[in-house]
UniProtKB/TrEMBL annotation:
The lineage of its organism: Eukaryota, Metazoa, Chordata, Craniata, Vertebrata. This is Tudor-interacting repair regulator protein. The gene is NUDT16L1. InterPro entries: NUDIX_hydrolase-like_dom_sf, NudT16. It is found in: Nucleus. Pfam families: Nudt16-like.
């Protein structure tokens, strides 16, 4: 049996807004679209989800930190999205969740999600190439492969083997579950396969103890 999908501590938006000045707020957006296409004519794509490669080599969702002294969550998010995507504005209706992050920094991570048409998603990809931060803080958008190939590693498990920002992988798994884009058992299987792949890769790098 696969292990449960790990989650961060979730709090409500109201609770998040009551947190004191010692907390930082990060806001990110998951943009996705139903995709009827088939890879190689036989593997259903199901959905296309956008993430981005950052300047530090980590994968994450478009967005960033919002200074609550000057911006509402949505205004701050849209300001950052304008720099990295250039063509989209989200509203409170797109709010999905808030989670408290682990570690020494007191950060509450807010996630927004909006379903687009596949054509609208492609338009975002084109616009992002011409945004101010493209090639600087943002190195490009990528689509998450939400399928697993016959070897049980290709596709989503391989994608989960990448390096993510502190909350991005948790947020991706959470959103795919609560938006009914992938069953939790399939998420857990993909995560287990990714973890096993990383373990084997590490073992190859380490010298034998014998």
């Amino acid at each position: 049996m696969s292990a449960a999908v790990p989650e961060l501590k979730q709090i409500s938006r109201v609770e998040a807004m009551r947190l004191g000045p010692g907390w930082s707020h990060s806001c990110h957006a998951m943009l996705y679209a139903a995709n009827p296409g088939q890879l190689f004519g036989r593997i259903p794509m199901r959905f296309s989800v956008l993430m981005q490669m950052r300047f530090d080599g980590l994968l994450g969702f478009p967005g960033g930190f919002v200074d609550r002294r000057f911006w509402s969550l949505e205004d701050g998010l849209n300001r950052v999205l304008g720099l990295g995507l250039g063509c989209l504005r989200l509203t409170e209706a797109d709010y999905l969740s808030s989670h408290l992050t682990e570690g020494p920094h007191r950060v509450v991570a807010h996630l927004y999600a909006r379903q687009l048409t596949l054509e609208q998603l492609h338009a975002v990809e084109i616009s992002a190439v011409h945004s101010r931060d493209h090639g600087l803080e943002v190195l490009g958008l990528v689509r998450v492969p939400l399928y697993t190939q016959k070897d049980r590693v290709g596709g989503f498990p391989n994608f989960l083997s990448n390096a993510f920002t502190s909350t991005a992988k948790y947020q991706l798994l959470f959103a795919l579950k609560v938006l009914n884009m992938m069953p939790e058992e399939k998420l857990a299987e993909a995560l287990a396969a990714a973890t096993e792949k990383q373990k084997k890769a590490l073992e190859k790098l380490l010298p034998s103890s014998s």
